[in-house]
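Hi Y.,

Following your request, here is the sequence exactly as I used it, all 292 residues.
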Amino acid sequence: MFRNLRLYSFTNPWPQSEEDLSTALQGAAFQPCGPLTERSSGWEPPAPEAGDSLARRVNGADLLRMRSQSRVLPAAAVNEELDVRIDDYRQRMGEEPSGREKRRLKAEVRDELMPKAMVKSDRIWGTVDIATKIVGIDAAQPAMAERFISRLKAAFGDLDLDPLTFERPVHDFLKAMFLGTTAPNFALGHECRMQAAGDEVSTVRWMNFDLSDKTIRRHVVDGMRLTHLGLVYDNVMSFVLDENGVITKLKFLGMDDAPDDDNDPLARLDAEYVLLTGSLRALLKDLNKVLG
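Below is the corresponding structure, written out as tokens. Let me know if you'd prefer a different format.
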């Protein structure tokens, strides 16, 4: 279900029930792109099998799903038609169009081609832990998370979301784990990324290696900055944690071997969500013990 987690916290009141939350989200529900609209985003039912509710409350947490639809209008198609219109302008007017005229022609071309463009959709999952008021967004890129947050604020108005932080830097925890100082319920994975001191461009990535090898650790001892580290938590899930607290490549161990019950997709969704929310609560509790 979730492959990434960008974590945020808030202090605002949260709807008391699934029904109240769904009603609040209706104000920012998904609407398909209009003929001249490049992108449209909004909330859709996370569990269509359960009805039209825009939220699914299970295990003390709310599951949300945002849908974004965009029109695919290749720049090459716009430029090709624009060249035709510029040539036509030269023949009619006997002169080169000004920069302003070229911009007008380009806008004209886009307005004519946009209704004919194909549409595509992508979806972003989100989870809200009601007791701790922590939001997790399945977004690999910051821009995706910002889109999700923007639509959540459109539904709630004054919702104040801030990235989840700890008293001590996450980097300190990553470095300690990498150099051999273990923390309860955490184990090293087989992936890490390092950055040369003072040079954000020069990076080294290690994949499928024994990270306890002294030759690999030596790079950090000698001054390289550890920015990403693969971890296994409680023998339940593996992931990569970066120095900003962003989780990527999230995977629950043994899930590939679990039987796929196609007869009850709603039950499977709920079971996966219960596993996610329970594991995330335990993970954040243990990180809080380490980082404050």
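Residues 170-291 form one domain.

Thanks again,
Q.
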